[in-house]
Amino acid sequence: MPNSGQQLGRPRDAQIDRTVLRAARELLAEAGYAGVTMDATAARAGVGKAAIYRRFGSKAELLFAAAVHGMDIEPPPDSGSLRGDLHALARIIDQRLSSPGARQVAPPLLAEMARDPALAARFRETFIAREQHDLAAILERAVRRGELPGAVDPSLAHLLISGPLFMALLAFQRPVDDGLLHGIASVIAAGLIARAHEETGRESGAAGGESRPAGER
């Protein structure tokens, strides 16, 4: 399976990683998404094309890593609350998606993924999985604090926080300020906490029902 940037961050490859991504960003700014090729990126970076393909399976994956994020992202520092952590993450997502490069890459990338299920699967298994990993860390903090009574599916939280920001920034092209980011984070935090309590209550009720004698049901 193509690496989709999974080697980013290894010390022996760090310089090549930075050079390739910088070359891709420069070409994207100069020629747009359609004008970027793996050959041109290799020539600009001064590396062999095989070195790029060892890191990225396609131009789409290369440009996403160059313009949005690679596989080396981390969750924001612990703010002390689920709402605060989600607010900090919303700020990060806003920064990633509102850059000129991200705005150039998103529309053609979505079109390519719609035409190519294998590409979409690779994105789910790499970049999206990494985003969900970071959300899982945020949710685990909330469980340790006692804000969440149990585990929450990070894929659900990922959809809830990335969807509104993607639509606002890239579909509706509306300005996003910190007040909106705070509102999105607050609503999502409240919803996740309510759902977790609902699920815990349902599980407790089911367990209690199973333990009662038949005549007491």
Instruction: List segments where confidence is low: pLDDT < 50 over at least 5 consecutive residues.
Output: 211-217
Superfamily (CATH H level) name of the largest domain: Tetracycline Repressor, domain 2
Share of residues in helices:
over 70%
Order of helices and strands: HHHHHHHHH
**In the CATH classification, which architecture of the largest domain applies?**
Orthogonal Bundle
CATH class of the largest domain: Mainly Alpha
Largest sheet: none
Q: Which oligomeric form is depicted?
A: single chain
Please tally the helical runs, counting DSSP H or I stretches of 4 or more residues. 9
In total, the number of strands is 0
Shape: elongated
How many distinct domains?
Answer: 2
C-alpha end-to-end distance: 53 Å
The radius of gyration is: 21 Å
Kindly name the structural category.
mainly alpha
The CATH topology of the largest domain is what? Tetracycline Repressor, domain 2
